[in-house]
Design brief:
143 residues, Nuclear Transport Factor 2, Chain: A, 4-stranded antiparallel β-sheet, 4 strands, 29% helix, globular
Length: 143
């Protein structure tokens, strides 16, 4: 049976009361997301995503609420797909000089889910703009 996960999407609205830290380069963001994915693959979603909380312009309470939703959506994965067995970096996509997206797989024994981390570069560094996951794999392949 195919499971399509609803996308958990953190859309960041840049408000005057919230200022995120930023990464100095795509390489610095990638190193950080590798650590996030290692924690997630080790069933430590809190520990993983809390590492990038400072880089999100989302107010801390909203980030925590979104984290709760992510954990809720991930909770049945082990019973559906088996235990988490690791992660894999898939690709990096850029849109102009403003957006960069990292795509990863979180591997389970019977399936995988794709994680997406989108960063916005305002010219002063990269800030987390959105993150979400999906379990459909067909988009990985050319039409």
């Amino acid at each position: 049976m195919k499971y399509i996960l609803p996308a958990i999407l953190l859309l960041i609205t840049l408000g005057s009361e919230a200022r995120a830290d930023s990464f100095s380069s795509p390489q610095a963001a990638r190193v950080s997301i590798d650590k996030v994915m290692a924690a997630i693959a080790a069933d430590n979603v809190d520990g993983g995503l809390s590492q990038i909380k400072p880089y999100s312009a989302l107010p801390p309470a909203e980030f925590d609420a979104a984290l709760g939703q992510i954990k809720y959506q991930l909770s049945p994965m082990a019973s559906r797909f088996g235990k988490s067995i690791g992660y894999e970096f898939i690709k990096e996509d850029k849109v102009g000089n403003s957006f960069i997206r990292f795509t990863y797989l979180q591997k389970y024994e019977k399936h995988a889910i794709r994680w997406f981390f989108i960063f916005y570069d305002s010219g002063t560094g990269l800030m987390l703009n959105a993150l979400f996951f999906r379990d459909n794999m067909q988009d990985l392949f050319p039409n």
